[in-house]
Amino acid sequence: AVLHEVLRFCNIVPLGIFRATSQDAVVNGYTIPKGTMVITNLYSVHFDEKYWSDPAVFSPERFLDSSGNFVRREAFLPFSLGRRHCVGEQLARMEMFLFFTT
Description:
Strand content: 5-15%
Radius of gyration: 16 Å
Order of helices and strands: HEEEEHH
Number of helices: 3
Structural class: alpha+beta
Largest sheet: 2 strands, antiparallel
């Protein structure tokens, strides 16, 4: 839970990788033409009050349920998501684990 909160609170990369739309798309009523560059703002997701209560406070407990079990959060995207998420995610997680436990 602590590692997840560190990754949420201290963004490795505040913006996702640039992508280009492969076809026209409509998102929330806005038309995005084919070939438009799109950037995911990971910082805004990790600090959005819609998904996180009191997002400006460091609180690993937000990743635990009432029994103390780890809970995955859909708005947790430190390595982006989808087919093209960060290829170094597993290595980064292992390195962070080793750093904090040794």
